[in-house]
Amino acid sequence: MNKKLTDAQIFQLACEFGYEYRMLKAIIKVESGGVGFSDTTGKIIIQFEPHWFKRHKKDWANATKHLTWQSNKVGNQTEEWKAFNDAFAVDANAAMKSTSIGLMQLMGFHYIMAGFKTVGEMWDAAKESEYNQVRMTLVWIGKNPSLVNAIKKRDFRKIAYYYNGSEYEKYNYHNRLSTAYSTSKEYVPN
Question: Which of 85, 161, 163, 171 is the most buried (most CB within 10 A)?
C-alpha cells in the first residue's frame, strides 16, 4: 500500500463517514499541512506535548536521566523526534499517548476511541499509511456527536473547539480552517 493519501481516498473516506470532501480536506490541511510523513526521513509527522506526558507519567519528576523532552516546544521534526525519543526512553506508552501523529494530528491517548486496544497498535497502523491516519481519526471523531455535527454544519469555531480545545483562538485555528475550506476545490471522481 502506498503511504501517501490520494484525493480519491479522501473522497472515499469522506463519503463513507458522511462528511463533505472539502471539509475533510480542509481539516487535513490545517492539522498537518497535508503531510503525514516527512519527505526527508520517511517518519510519521509528530508533535510531542510535554504537558500531556506529565499527565500520563505520574512520577515524571523522578526521571532525571532523560530531560530533553521537558523543554520541547512546537518545532521541526528533528526536534520533535529528539523530545519524543527522550520521553520514550522514560516511558514508552506515556510518550506515545502524549504525542499527536500523522495527517490529522490525532493524540495518542485517543487510541481506544480510535478503535485500538493499545496505543502501540494505533502508532503501528498510523506508520503504515496516511489513509490509516485519516481513518482512525474519523473513527475517533465519530465518538463525539458535537464534533460530528459541527463538521457537517461547517461550524468552524465549534470544530476548532472540539478538535483543538478551548484555546483554539490563540492559534487562529477556526479562521485557518475556514480559509482552507473556502480555497479547497471539489473533487470530481473519474
Answer: 163
